[in-house]
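Quick start: read one record
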Amino acid sequence: MAPIGGRLHHVGFVVASISNVAKPFAASLCGTWDERIFADPNQSVRVTFLEGPGASDALVELIEPDGPDSPVLSFLKKGGGLHHLCYEVKSLESQLKFAQTTGGKIVRPPLPAVAFNGRRIAWVYTRYQLLLEFLEQ
């Protein structure tokens, strides 16, 4: 099985309020924010993306819980912060099979994501407790 064949798409941070932190967070990275916020009922979160100063920089995703059943709510209660890395991959199924061969555990099977125009995502915990999101191209 081949390792991750895609590119780092974004780094996710859990925050209490996107509207309160997005502008200063972007400014701290010398980046920009287009003020678009996506509500994703499949994941019970609201997300937005910050762009860095370089054209090839990975995005920074800010994630806000959207309701009491949000999977990131307990993470926020522990202080929030750096949450996951997201890789854009050619084949989601192949990537998930590879992740399992290296001791990864699929914690959320493929589902469409609002912020990515319905492209599917999946979530994996590595054997080293790193949460990875995989986004199909």
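The mean pLDDT is 94.
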